[in-house]
């Protein structure tokens, strides 16, 4: 097991952008699947004790994922992700916005750009999150780094069981 996997989280407030880089000790194809298949996303995509539950997902350009993060007491926080660009196994982009249970978006949202690359069995994922407003960026940063760090740790553990 490689204990020196890169994790980097940077915020450029002036650009309203978050930059995340994370390496995983798994092949690129498996890591890609973990980010693009609902049955895998639901296993790692929420920080414990919350859990992710996808209502539907259509991974294609113009397709959507509609899912909730559910707390132990049953409270749901819904999000809509619309896929805007897909280059299989190497890149996908999506527009993300919180929503209500009827899929009505809470604007503004954010644009996510995911890039995948592999070297010597280590897959690197670079994620750039551009927020439409500074206020959304500030709101996003309230707990986001902690929560997203936990979800990426969940993914690392899941990949270990799937490899």
From TrEMBL:
The lineage of its organism: Bacteria, Pseudomonadati, Bacteroidota, Sphingobacteriia, Sphingobacteriales. This is SRPBCC domain-containing protein. It comes from the Bacteria. Coiled coil: none annotated. It holds the Pfam family AHSA1. Residues 28-160 form the Activator of Hsp90 ATPase homologue 1/2-like C-terminal domain. Belongs to the AHA1 family. InterPro entries: ASHA1/2-like_C (IPR013538), START-like_dom_sf (IPR023393). It comes from Mucilaginibacter jinjuensis.
């Amino acid at each position: 097991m490689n204990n020196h996997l890169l994790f980097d989280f940077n915020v450029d407030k002036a650009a309203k952008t978050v930059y995340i880089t994370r390496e995983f000790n798994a092949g690129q194809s498996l890591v890609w699947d973990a980010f693009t298949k609902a049955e895998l996303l639901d296993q790692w995509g929420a920080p414990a004790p919350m859990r992710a539950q996808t209502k539907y997902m259509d991974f294609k350009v113009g397709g959507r994922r509609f899912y909730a993060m559910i707390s132990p007491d049953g409270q749901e926080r819904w999000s809509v992700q619309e896929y805007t660009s897909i280059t299989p196994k190497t890149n996908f982009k999506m527009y993300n916005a919180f929503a209500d249970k009827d899929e009505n978006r809470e604007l503004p949202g954010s644009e996510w750009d995911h890039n995948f690359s592999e070297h010597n069995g280590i897959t690197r994922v670079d994620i750039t999150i551009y927020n439409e407003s500074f206020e959304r960026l500030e709101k996003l940063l309230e707990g986001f780094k902690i929560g997203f760090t936990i979800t990426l740790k969940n993914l690392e553990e899941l990949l270990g069981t799937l490899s």
